[in-house]
Amino acid sequence: MNRVLGTARTIRSRFADPAASLVLPLAAAAIVGVSLVYMLVRPQWGDQTWLLFLARRSLDTSHMQFGDLVEANPPLIIWLSEIPVRLSQILAISSTAALQLVMALTVACSVAWTVSLVGRGEAFAGRIFSAWFALALLVATVIRPWPHYAQREHILLLLLLPYLVLTARRIDGLKITVGEAFLAGMVGAAGILLKPHHALIIGAVELFVLMRARNVRALFRPESVAMAATAIAYAGAIFLWAPDYLRKVLPLAMHTYYAYHRVELWTMLPPVRALKLAILLLAWALVYRRLAHRTLSAVLALAALGATAGYLAQMKGHDYQYAPAMAFFDLLLGVIAIDVWLRWSPERAWLPNWRLAAAVSSLTCIVAISVSYPLQRARAAHPYVDARIEAQRALSRHIPRGSTVVVLSTSTESFFEEVLDRGWEWGSRFDCLWMIPALVDAERSAARDGATEPAALRDAAATTRSAVTADLKRWRPNPVLVDRCQDSTIAPCMGSGTMRLDLLQWLQQDPGFASAWKDYVRQGEVGPYDLWCREGETAVCREILAHSR
Q1: I need a surface site. Which of 7, 71, 224, 436 has the fewest CB within 10 A?
Q2: According to the model, what pLDDT value does residue 367 have?
Q3: Secondary structure (DSSP) of 223-255
């Protein structure tokens, strides 16, 4: 035992050397440099580019009617996506570049605000903690969630962090101005309203506040009142400016979206992930009483658990939906590690030689950027690819700019990257036919059981067929890609599970669609897609096929 203690004292004394004082500057330089690269080099986008296209169409039509655009999620994300679209028009840059710029500013504001709350009113040790916590924030909000950068869940995370930290600091006795509290509540509510499933985070944190205060009046703080007011105002805004979402889109989504990308609950938390979380929570419980920032750690732990519950409630299993929970768990681990490090390291190791620190940090940042940039570029250049994405990229090179295209499928995957880059129009109000798996399953179940299909699902099927027919007549897309979801020799269509379904056969049950489809001629196949062009306008199909053989 004496030998162990002697070794520990020796190690600690070494960290008292001047070199130990460079740990924070070096870590800051490396993490900031890598974070800048991660914000500059974006990943492959799917939903993000669809939402940018929707925002552009919304601005062009000056309204959000069912006949123009349909998005199953509430319209706030479309309204927020109008910001980078407008910015792209002002700066004459692409909408994706504008979104990257907006996200960089959002990250900077969220991290700066959160760090200021953590370090406010603290002694020197608390300010050192806030500096380390800033680095943990960059790891949790930029580096780790990079594959899901600018997804709704990523934006939710950035908007919610100030509210969470403000609540923790208020519990610890920090005086917060009413204006700042209202702003944190409004911004946090905007984040939750992007993905209402994550209201469970707010529920868990507010319950913790109530338990600590033991007074129901603690729930009527400025930030919580602002959250409720923002939610009410948002409901009113939808009623005024997007009534079709309430009347048409929401009923359609409620009756069909449950079956889209649905997975079993037990598959959503793999054993290894569940074990890691259990170990982290156990470690937190063991050291909780010894933590200097125990309230902050408790709020982050509850936020992580609430976000995990929100993830499970969606029954989809997408990694990006787990991003908020992952970030909160990362920050919880960061709080524990920082507190332990500051308790263990001597205070004189916290103050570096500033001239030396500046020189070494500058060099470290340059090295971090130089090393991570080519690696990240290579990572972005080789994203997830399947047969459908390969086909989309191959044929996109031969479709002229300004064309109107559409893909009849249960998933367009990353096709809206091409739509935006090549200036195409999209010949549909839907990004994909996400409602068809539920509708086909209901029809098959009714036929198998000799029962009548529920009236709500019959109405949803009629609405879907009518909308696709109207879009075909209105936009007259050429070419049209039809996914062969019925073909057992290729992978099932994304979002439909293992179900095999003939999309054209299902749509042609509507006489109006069958009549409109007579104007189209099948020209051949490109990967998993059948290629159709309007009769007499087949040049683009011939060009695609000539280069696909």
Answers
A1: 7
A2: 95
A3: HHHHHHHHHHHHHHHHHHH-HHIIIIIHHHHHH
